[in-house]
């Protein structure tokens, strides 16, 4: 088409082609100057910005203040899974979920959303862990609310025949019982948690578990019930006959990089630990069995001691492996001190037993010093070791050092759990009353409207109720 803008003038197109102009004087295109376009666009953009600003600030003509971005909406289970992963991967030894049997908790993020009971239990558990990591000493009301909600959801799942026997439900019951350690106001309820778990195991474990996750849950619960915890302090917990189906269930293997390191170490034996409550309650009738178990514990203790001496660097570099070894070592020391004290009463002239007791007490101090960095969540069985040693040692310097270590571990998870069991232990050692905060719960329970002297008398009376005098004579240790 002709691009001439003036009538009577030949356009450039027609002039180039040497043809007559067609449509002379009809302007077909108009090209804008760039500078003019930029200024026009700038004015338009400024006008648009003012309009947008007016919409946000209500016509005041200034942009809104910048603030921190809000968390995007998401599924609550996703946030729980994020917390679990964060706690599992935490490099702080004392605030890592590695202390709570990682072979079990590693499987939990992927199980969220399939069980209401497990979801509610983990919501309470992660909230309580966050509270422990904060600088506040008081319990977060939100954590308590989540715990109460978790209890209610678990009760509904247990009442439902379909969900009662599921591994997720059993795992939820185990986690709720772990939560109670942090929120305990009345330690009598801790007894009910343990008895409830024992009842669940009795009704659900009729044969050796085939599911790998169920085996992990069963081992975790069984370890709590038999390893110097519930079954020793609570005579109402019945381990037979269901525990016989778990005799061949060993502790799940640690992470692959630790398998070689732990393959030659002694592992917890469920049959061996399950014998201990009956041995402590009836020592005279079981003297031969006590001696056999004691020799086995001595051998395991020696193996662990040699391993610690030969692998100091390896243990300091491998956090999980170090926590595992310290926990086992603490259990062997506590059991060894317990059986040693009983055998010394039965054989008062045995000098070797006195020497071995001193060795156990010294090793308890070394262990407690080494495991300090594992506070507050780890250091399992360390409180049992140092409290047991403190109850039996006759050396004043050793006793003073152990007393200080007991104070150092006062605010740990393992000590809180031990206090729950001691609070309703009817034949608790009299020496424990020298530690004021060891009897706070019992005193509070018995002192409503009574003075301290009356409370102590009632506490003493409780120690002899429901238990034979013979048992009390030998239970001078944990």
Keywords:
478 residues, mainly alpha, 23 helices, 62% helix, elongated, disordered C terminus, Transcription factor Cys6, Osmoadaptation_assoc
Topology at a glance:
Elements: H1 12-17, H2 34-57, H3 76-88, H4 102-105, H5 116-133, H6 141-159, H7 161-164, H8 167-183, H9 188-204, H10 212-226, H11 230-233, H12 256-262, H13 270-281, H14 287-310, H15 312-317, H16 319-346, H17 351-370, H18 382-392, H19 396-408, H20 413-423, H21 440-446, H22 452-462, H23 469-474
Could you walk me through the main structural features you see in this protein, from its secondary elements to its overall organization?
Residues 55-75, 446-467 are annotated as: Disordered. This is Transcription factor Cys6. Residues 455-467 have a biased composition (Basic and acidic residues). InterPro entries: Osmoadaptation_assoc. By secondary structure, the chain is an all-alpha fold. It has a domain at 281-478. It is 62% helix and 0% strand. It contains 23 helices and no strands. Helix 5 (116-133) packs antiparallel against helix 6, helix 17 runs parallel beside helix 19 and helix 21 (440-446) packs across helix 22. The chain is elongated. The relative contact order is 0.07.
Overall, the morphology is: elongated
> Average pLDDT, to the nearest integer?
76
What is the SS-derived class? mainly alpha
Distance between the termini: 107 Å
Total beta strand runs: 0
| Percentage beta strand | under 5%
Low-confidence stretches: 51-61, 440-478
Order of helices and strands: HHHHHHHHHHHHHHHHHHHHHHH
Can you summarize the main beta sheet? Answer: none
Helix content: 55-70%
Q: Radius of gyration from the CA trace?
A: 35 Å
Q: What is the number of helical segments per DSSP (H or I, 4+ residues)?
A: 23
């Amino acid at each position: 088409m002709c691009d001439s803008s003036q009538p009577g003038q030949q356009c450039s197109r027609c002039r180039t082609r040497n043809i007559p102009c067609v449509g002379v004087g009809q302007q077909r295109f108009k090209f804008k100057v760039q500078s003019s376009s930029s200024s026009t666009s700038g004015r338009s953009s400024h006008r648009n910005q003012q309009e947008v600003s007016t919409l946000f600030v209500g016509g005041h003509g200034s942009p809104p203040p910048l603030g921190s971005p809000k968390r995007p909406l998401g599924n609550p289970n996703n946030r729980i899974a994020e917390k679990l992963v964060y706690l599992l991967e935490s490099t702080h030894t004392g605030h890592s979920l590695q202390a709570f049997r990682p072979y079990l908790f590693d499987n939990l993020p992927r199980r969220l959303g399939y069980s209401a009971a497990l979801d509610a239990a983990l919501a309470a558990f992660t909230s309580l862990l966050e509270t422990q990591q904060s600088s506040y000493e008081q319990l977060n009301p939100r954590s308590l609310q989540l715990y109460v909600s978790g209890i209610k959801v678990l009760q509904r799942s247990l009442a439902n025949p379909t969900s009662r026997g599921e591994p997720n439900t059993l795992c939820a019951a185990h986690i709720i019982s772990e939560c109670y350690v942090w929120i305990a106001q009345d330690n009598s309820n801790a007894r009910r948690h343990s008895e409830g778990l024992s009842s669940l195991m009795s009704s659900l474990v009729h044969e050796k578990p085939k599911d790998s996750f169920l085996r992990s849950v069963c081992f975790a619960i069984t370890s709590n019930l038999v390893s110097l915890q519930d079954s020793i302090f609570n005579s109402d917990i019945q381990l037979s006959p269901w525990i016989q189906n778990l005799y061949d269930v060993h502790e799940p293997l640690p992470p692959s990089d630790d398998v070689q390191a732990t393959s030659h170490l002694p592992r917890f034996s469920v049959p061996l630990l399950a014998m201990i409550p009956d041995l402590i309650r009836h020592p005279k009738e079981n003297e031969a069995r006590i001696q056999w178990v004691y020799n086995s514990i001595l051998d395991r203790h020696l193996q662990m001691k040699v391993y610690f001496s030969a692998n100091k660097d390896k243990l300091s570099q491998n956090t999980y492996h170090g926590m595992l070894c310290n926990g086992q070592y603490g259990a062997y020391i506590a059991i060894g001190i317990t059986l040693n004290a009983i055998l010394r009463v039965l054989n008062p002239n045995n000098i070797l037993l006195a020497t071995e007791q001193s060795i156990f007490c010294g090793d308890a101090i070394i262990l407690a010093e080494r495991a300090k960095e594992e506070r507050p969540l780890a250091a399992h069985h360390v409180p049992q070791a140092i409290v047991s040693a403190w109850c039996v040692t006759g050396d004043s310097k050793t006793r003073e050092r152990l007393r200080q270590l007991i104070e150092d571990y006062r605010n740990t998870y393992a000590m809180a759990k031990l206090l729950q069991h001691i609070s309703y232990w009817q034949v608790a050692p009299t020496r424990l009353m020298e530690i004021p905060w060891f009897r706070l719960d019992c005193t509070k329970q018995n002192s409503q409207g009574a003075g301290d002297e009356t409370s102590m008398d009632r506490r003493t009376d409780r120690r002899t109720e429901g238990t034979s005098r013979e048992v009390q004579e030998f239970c001078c240790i944990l």
